[in-house]
Structure formats: C-alpha cells, structure tokens
Backbone:
C-alpha cells in the first residue's frame, strides 16, 4: 500500500511504474476504509506478467480424495475441519472463505504468519488442509508429504497432470490465481502505455522465460492495456463480493 500511494502520486511520464500482486490493486482497498489511493482511478493499467494458480492440498492421513469428499466430511462434522492460511486478507485466505461460502460448510480458519508456516501447519497435522500456489506446494506433493486435491483454475497444471481442476471437480466458482500486474500513474499517455505494453508482452513471450515459468507452475499472462483494465476491474468486483459476504475487515 505504501508503494501504491507513492506511484499514484508520481509524475505520469512512464518512468515510475508499480509491479504488484492482487494485494495492493484488488484486496487492500476492500479491506481498509482509507487505503490512501483508488485502484480504479489512480492508476493506468499497463500489462500483466504471469499467473500461477492456487490449489487445495490436504495432509496425506486425511481420508479424502476430492473436494466432494471434503464437503461431505465438513457437513458431517461441523467445525471439526480446519484449514490454514497466511495472515488476513491474503489470496489463500480469501479462496478459503470462498470455499466456505460456496459449499455452505462450517470450517475453521487457522491463520499463520506466512506461507511457509501455513504449509508446515498442514505437514505437521495442525490443520487438515490449505490453499496455496502450485510452486510453493509442488515439492511437498512430489515427495508425498501433501495430498493434492484440486487446482483452482480452468486448466490442469503441467507439473501435476493427474490433479483435476476445481472446474472438473464440480466447483467452477473456486478459481484463484496469483498474478503480477504492471500499472503506471493515472494520466500517463496512451503512447507510453502502448509502448510499455508491447515491450513487456514481447519479453513475456520469450521461450526461455516461458520455460522457466512453466517449471514452477506459472504461465505468461498477455493482453492489451484494455484487457488488463477489464481483468483488474473484474477481479476487484469478484473479491469485493467475497470480502463483503465473509464480513472481512481490518479497520
């Protein structure tokens, strides 16, 4: 948020940009009454770099193999199913809340200080499941220390081809990715925005870069400035509804 405020107040000459995950551009303005900037009006969307889907994992001893199994268990055992998330208002926390709202289940959220602590919570059995991004979970899944349940995306992960998507699992609403977007201060000229967009898209289409991203379960996310603006607006609307329904506020 500090960085976002600085960029929003910067000179709109194309030399000051912000690279941000959804936190500053989508989530924070819906959690705080006065974040100090308006993501819809204080920035000019330039490009998106890549996206990496979140996924649902469980500890191997938890006798479930699908989302439907988890929902059935949760409904048969209200408030006995726990899920971990890093901090408050993070992507995994919001996806877990969306899971709870979508499935109508009473599940208990245990919040940790960060992503690593959340994964450790599942590994040690403190919680039964968690949502996190594929790169963070991949090694533990391959070592059979975590059970992969579903990838929260429309397409399966190249690294985990046997793991179904949430869409295939019958829960198409449960989609969430970690993405990085690039924005400039509002008022930056269309010529500058277009030049930056073309250059960034060209870099992201590099075969070497695409191969590197693929290794960690991410993929380039290309689009025009107009595509980026529409995508970010849709993300703000979608997660604002989840935050409101779940009653999540920080101040």
Residues:
């Amino acid at each position: 948020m500090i960085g976002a405020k600085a960029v929003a107040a910067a000179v709109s000459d194309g030399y000051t940009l912000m690279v941000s995950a959804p936190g500053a551009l989508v989530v924070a303005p819906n959690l705080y009454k006065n974040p100090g900037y308006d993501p819809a009006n204080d920035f000019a969307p330039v490009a998106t770099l890549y996206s990496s889907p979140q996924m649902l994992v469980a500890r191997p001893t938890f006798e479930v193999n699908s989302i439907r199994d988890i929902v059935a268990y949760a409904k048969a055992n209200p408030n006995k199913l726990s899920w971990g998330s890093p901090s408050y208002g993070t992507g995994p926390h919001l996806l877990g809340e969306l899971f709870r709202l979508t499935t109508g289940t009473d599940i208990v959220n245990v919040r940790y200080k960060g992503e690593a602590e959340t994964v450790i919570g599942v590994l040690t059995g403190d919680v039964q499941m968690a949502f996190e991004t594929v790169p963070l979970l991949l090694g533990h899944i391959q070592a059979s220390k975590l059970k992969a349940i579903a990838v929260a995306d429309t397409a399966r992960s190249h690294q985990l081809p046997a793991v179904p998507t949430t869409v295939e699992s019958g829960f198409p609403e449960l989609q969430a990715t970690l993405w990085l977007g690039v924005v400039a201060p509002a008022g930056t000229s269309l010529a500058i925005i277009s030049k930056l967009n073309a250059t960034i898209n060209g870099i992201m289409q590099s075969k070497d870069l695409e191969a590197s991203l693929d290794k960690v379960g991410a993929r380039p996310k290309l689009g025009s400035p107009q595509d980026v603006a529409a995508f970010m607006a849709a993300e703000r609307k979608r997660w604002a509804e989840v935050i409101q329904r779940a009653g999540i506020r920080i101040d």
Summary: The domain at 53-151 is CATH 3.40.190.10 (D-Maltodextrin-Binding Protein; domain 2). Residues 150 and 163 are 6 Å apart (CA to CA). The chain has a mean pLDDT of 94. The chain is about 40% helix and 20% strand.
